[in-house]
Amino acid sequence: MRFKASYNLWLIAPAALMVAVFFLYPLYFSLYSAITLDNGSFTLTHLEKAFELYSNDILFTIMLVCVSVFILAILSITIAATIALSPFKRITSLLGFLYRLPLFIPFIVTAQMMRTFLAKNGLMNNAFVEAGLLTPMETISLLGWSGIIITFVWKQMAFSTLLISGAMAALDESQIRAARNLGASKIRILFEVMLPQITPTLGVAMVLSTVTMMSVLSVPLMIGTGSPTMMSADMAFRVNSYGDYHVANALGLVSYLICAGLAWFYLRQSLKDKGAVA
Amino acid sequence: MTRLHIENLQAKYGEKLILNNINLSVEEGEMIALLGPSGCGKTTLLNALCGFVPISQGDIFSGDRVITHLPAEKRNITMVFQSYALWPHMTVAENIGYGLKVRKVKRAEIQSRVNELLRIVKLDNLQDEKVTALSGGQRQRVALARALAIRPDVLVLDEPLSNLDAKVRLNVRHEIKALQKQLGFTSLIVTHDQEEALVMADKIAVLHKGEIVQVGTPEEIYNKPNSPFVADFMGAENRIEWPTEKDGFSDSSHKITLHQSSNNEPSNQPKQVYFRSENVILSTRQTNSKIQKEEGLILTGHIEQSAFFGSNYRISVRCGMHIIQVDHTSDLPMNTPVSLQVPNHALYIYDNIVENKVHQKSTVV
Ligand SMILES: Nc1ncnc2c1ncn2[C@@H]1O[C@H](COP(=O)(O)OP(=O)(O)O)[C@@H](O)[C@H]1O
Ligand SMILES: [Mg+2]
Fold first, then answer.
1. Count of alpha carbons within 13 Å of B193, Cβ hemisphere only?
2. For a designed S-S bond to B19, which of B11, B92, B142, B243 qualifies (C-beta 3.0 to 4.6 A apart)?
C-alpha cells in the first residue's frame, strides 16, 4: 500500500513540478511584489499608488469588459440558437462555418484589422462615403472605447458561440421536440427549455472571455485613444517606462481580484443550481 | 367518427425511403398499436404525424382538418417520447403544466388541471419534485400527464414501456390501458412487443419495412396472420418449407406428413408452413395413442434440447434438417424419439413466393 502511494506520487511529480515552477511561483512572486517593499516588508503603498493614478482606468476597464461581455452573450446566444433551431440547414451550416473564423485570427491581427476598418478614414467610413451615405466631413472615428468593445466582441464571439453552440447541440433533441409538440414557439423554447439548461456553459464562456479581455494588451494599445485606457496598457506602461514592477503588479493584483470575484460568483451560482437539483 | 386519418403517406430521410403507402384510420377513443420490429419506421411514422419529419407524399387528417404540412406546434397531437424527454430543470408540476402555460391558460386553472392529472396518474404530492429525482415508472407517468394536460386530439406513445423493468412494465401497461378506457383519449401506441400490442390495443397495425402489412383486431392478427412475416412476428416461429424432399426426412425416424381434410390441393406446390410452439402436441413413441386422427401436420424426430421456462419446458425437436420448438409440460431426456402433431387450425400456410411482393393468404383450414 505504502509502496503504491509513493509510486503514484512519482508519477505526478513531473507535472506538479512544472505547475509549481512555471505557474505557481511566478504568480506568487507577482502578488508578493505587489504588497511588499524592496526590503521585503509589507506595504499597501503600491496599491494606493495604483488607485491614485489609475482608478479612472480601472473603472473604464470594468465598464468596457461588462458591456463587451453583455453584448457578447446576446450575440453568441442569438447565433447559437439560430443554428440550433433554424429549419434551413444549408444556411445554418454556412453560418456555423463563418462564426468560427475569428478563432484562428490572433488578437493583434484583429486589432490591426479593426484599426484600418474603424478609423476616421478607414475602410468602413470610406465605404459609406463611396456609397454616398456620408460625406467625408460627417465621418466619425470609432477608435476609442467603442472600437475596443467591437474588437473584443468580434474576436471572442467565435469562442463563446462555439461553447454555447456545443452545449445546445448536446441537449436532447427530443426535449426540444417535446416543447414544440406542446405548442411552444422557437423563442419560448430558447428561453424556457434551452437556456436554463446551458447556463453553466454560458457562465464558463463569459468568465473565460472576461479573463481574456482583461489580459489583452494589443487591443487597448492599437485601438484605444490613450486616456482613459485599460489596465493592461497601464501595466505595460509602468514596466516599460518606469521599470516600476511594484505598481504594475499592484494593478495585476486588482485585475486578478476582479476575475477571482467573478469566478467566485459564478461558482457560487452553479453550486446553488446544483443544490436545488439534489 | 374518424379522429385521425392517414392517406398514402410517404416519408424519406434524404433519398432514403422510410415510410411508403401508409393508410390508417383511428376512430375517436380508439387505441391502435403500431407493431413492428426495430428499425421498421415506427418512430418515423409518429414523427411524421407530429410534424418533426417532413412528408413527401400523402395526407394526414385530424378530424376534418388537413394537418399534413402544419408546423409541429399547431397540430395538437402530443407525443410521449421513448426517452420521456422531460425537462430536467423544471419540477413535476412545471413539466405537466407547460403546454397549458404556452396556451396562456390562467395560472389557477393550470394549477387545478395539474393537480387533477397528478391524481389521475397517481403522483399526488410529487408536484414540487425535480423530475431528475423520480424513478423510471414515475417519469413515464409525468410524461403521460404532460402529454394529456392539453387534451390533445390524438396521443401518440413511442414504445412507452421499453425503458421500464419487467415488473413495472406490466403495471404501467395496465395503467395506461385503464386510463385510456377511463378518459377515452384517441391514441396510437408504438411497440415492438407483440404481447403489449395484443393486451393494450383495440386494433393492431403491423409495420414491416416501412409499410403496413396487416391491420386488424388483436384476435385477427393473432389467429389469421396474412403473411409469413406477420405469422413469424406474432410468434409462429416454427417454419417448414413445402415440399420437403431435401430436408432430410428420408430415414425412418424422421417423417413428415401434411393432411388437409378440407381441400385436395396438389401438395407439390411450394408452400411455407408456420405454427406456434404452444400448438404442437408432443407424444413419445410409447404414448402414440395421443395422435387420434391423421390430421394436420405430423412430424417425427428426436429431442435435442430442453429448457425450463417456468410454466413449461421449451423443447427443441430435431426433425430432419429442421429444429421444431415445442412447449411441453414436463422435461424429457435427450434423444427421446417423439412425434409431433399440429392441428390444421393452428397452421398458417402461404404460397411460397418471393416475400414482400404480394402477401397472399392461401389455405388456412
Ligand atoms: N435521422 C435519421 N436520418 C436518417 N435515417 C434515419 C433517421 N432516423 C431513423 N432513420 C432510419 O429510418 C429507419 C426507421 O427508423 P425508426 O423509425 O426509428 O424505426 P423504429 O422506431 O421502428 O425502430 C431506420 O432504418 C433508421 O436507420
Ligand atoms: Mg423507435
1. 15
2. B11
Distance CA B304, CA A184 (A): 60
Strand partners, B24: B6
Partner-chain residue, chosen from B51, B78, B132, that has the shortest CB–CB distance to A182:
B78
Q: At residue B360, does pLDDT exceed 60? A: no
Residues of chain A neighbouring B50 (CB-CB closer than 8 A): 177, 181
Burial readout A195-222 (b: 16 or more C-beta within 10 A, e: otherwise): bebbeebbbbbbbbbbbebbebebbbbb
Looking at B67-211, list the stretches that DSSP marks H as alpha helix, in order from N- to C-terminal side.
92-102, 107-120, 136-149, 166-183, 194-200
pLDDT at position B365 is 37
Considering its fold, how many domains does chain A have in total? 1
pTM for the whole structure: 0.82
The per-type count for chain B, helices as H runs and strands as E runs, is: 8, 19
Q: Which fold has domain B231-364?
A: OB fold (Dihydrolipoamide Acetyltransferase, E2P) (2.40.50)
Q: Which whole number is the average pLDDT over B193-215?
A: 94
What CATH number is attached to the domain comprising A193? 1.10.3720.10
How confident is the prediction for chain B on average, in pLDDT? 88
Q: Are B44 and B70 in contact (CB under 8 A)?
A: no
Phi, psi angles (nearest 5°) of residue B317 = -115, 125
- Indicate where chain B has its CATH 3.40.50.300 domain(s): 4-225
A258 belongs to a structural domain = yes
Give the pLDDT mean for B324-339. 90
**Whether A174 and B98 lie within 8 Å, measured CB to CB:** no
pLDDT tens string B47-74: 999 999 999 999 999 988 999 999 999 9
**Would the pLDDT of B245 be above 70?**
no
Whether A182 and B132 lie within 8 Å, measured CB to CB: no
Taking domain B4-225, whether its CATH number is 3.40.50.970 is answered by no
Helices in B153-289 by DSSP H: which ranges? 166-183, 194-200, 218-223, 228-233
Q: Is the CB of B125 under 6 A from ligand 1?
A: no
Q: pLDDT tier at B17 (50, 70, 90 boundaries)? A: very high
A24, A26, A32, A35: CA torsion to nearest 10: -120
- Structural domain range at position A271: 44-277
Numbered ranges of CATH 2.40.50.100 in chain B = 231-364
Residue in the block written with cell 496598457: A233
Number of CB pairs < 8 Å for A and B? 66
* Per-residue model confidence (pLDDT) at position B288: 56
Helix intervals (H) in A224-244: 231-237
Residue B123 contacts residue B145 (beta carbons within 8 Å): yes
3-state secondary structure A197-215: HHHHHHHHHHHHHHHHHHH
Under-70 pLDDT residues of chain A: 1-4, 273-278
CA distance, residue A88 to nearest chain B CA (Å): 13
Q: Is residue A9 part of a domain?
A: no
Listed residue (B179, B194, B113) closest to B144, CA to CA: B179
pLDDT at B264 over 60: no
Expressed in angstroms and rounded, the spacing between residue B274 Cα and the centre of ligand 2 is 27
SS3 of residue B310 by DSSP: coil
Is A146 part of a structural domain of the chain?
yes
Assign B216 to helix, strand or coil: strand
* Chain A nearest CA to B236, separation (Å): 36
ipTM here: 0.82
Residue B224 has pLDDT above 70, yes or no: yes
Residue-wise pLDDT for B203-212, tens only, equals 999 999 999 9
